[in-house]
Specification:
two-stranded antiparallel sheet, 159 residues, 9% strand, mainly alpha, 4 strands, binds zinc ion, single chain
Length: 159
């Protein structure tokens, strides 16, 4: 093989490697999570195409998109663990007041003095739902010593 052929091969080799790295980097920038853990056993997962599902969860809030509130993406090391995770979430009661409290908290982050009327307009909830969400917040603050039933390292996970 002449030197031109060898250089061409080397180039292709390098290009293939850099291409793969480039894709991984752009995935990280786009919000990809290369080091996720199985939601059940905690084993570290490869970043790409792990078994995952969207489950209903009243404690899940999406900072970017309120339409995704109440839905949590769970990832697992295997289809079996994914099934268990989905069943665990299905058994957990979905509390609408908790969901409403999350929507209220998001508005109050920007405007801590928002009243019920303003909260209702910003969240799209009825005033009575806002009241129930506020009650839920007060109750959960009062019980802050109780650790959450399910540790969640990424409360904002929502895709
Ligand atoms: Zn697992």
């Amino acid at each position: 093989m002449d030197s031109g052929g060898i250089i061409a091969m080397l180039y292709m080799h390098l290009h293939a490697r850099n291409g793969a790295i480039g894709r991984r980097r752009s995935a990280e920038r786009a919000g990809g999570r290369p080091m996720e853990r199985c939601g059940l056993c905690g084993v570290l997962l490869p970043g790409e195409s792990v078994p995952n599902a969207l489950v209903r969860d009243s404690s899940a809030f999406c900072a970017q998109d309120p339409a995704r509130d109440g839905k949590r993406r769970v990832v697992a090391c295997s289809p079996e663990h994914l099934t268990e995770l989905i069943e665990m979430h299905a058994r957990k009661p979905f509390m609408e007041a908790e969901l409403w409290a999350g929507k209220i908290a998001r508005v109050m982050d920007d405007d801590p003095r928002a009243d019920v009327q303003a909260l209702s307009e910003s969240t799209g909830l009825t005033p009575s739902h806002v009241q129930r969400g506020l009650s839920w917040m007060r109750a959960s603050r009062a019980g802050q010593q109780i650790p959450p039933a399910e540790p969640d390292p990424r409360p904002d996970d929502c895709d």
